Amino acid sequence: MSEKKQKAAQKPRNARARQPELPSRPFFSRKITLGSHQAQQVYKRGFEVTSDAFSEIGIVLRIVGTEEEAKAVEKVVDDMLDKVSTELKQEKERMQKLLDENGIVGDPQFTDPLSTEAQIFNPRAGRYLSLISEVDSVIRSMTLLWLSGVLTDGQYTNGAFHLQRRLLKISATIRNIARRARFAAYRKRNQAQNQRAKDKEKQKEKAPAANPTQEGEKSKDSDSGAESPVEEKKVATA
To answer: Tell me: the pLDDT tens digits for 154-171?
Structure first.
């Protein structure tokens, strides 16, 4: 490869390196291991984008909107997370009851578990990660019941898929809420700015302007104070 081609190939990489870095944000890492395919899919497809939506609600919305608007949106999101958490707890208790009734004890193993460290940038991201972990726990119980012959293939497959879809649906809903709230805050701020500009224009229009009649009288007064050339000529003739 020629020197020019090498420089051309390196240019995009260098251009990206020169871009300004994002502001430093606090976070901590939480180790998590997910055995079920469904929980892994929720983590891969839903965790980061949902975490970004939480940050948008908690931080960005307060910048472009008001504290009251941010708290109202946070209340809606928290209620959703609480509801899903309650549903998972009830499902976990139901699975455990079936295990106890059938005398089944154990922990199923998975051929390809996902072990990772998730970065927690805000408290609600930590809650969503806990919900993913809870889904994995419920599916583990389902798997044990299925492998033991208590649950049918259809019950196991549909049950596990329902939990995956439930958390991904929550993710999509939260992202839509964050987007709508941001647009509404921007629109409200722009309307307020436009109204202030209109008010300033009205104030300018109401300000007293110079009176052309008075200016004309002043001009006549100044002209009458000086002798005209005709009068000077008459005085000289006399």
So the answer is: 999 999 999 999 999 999
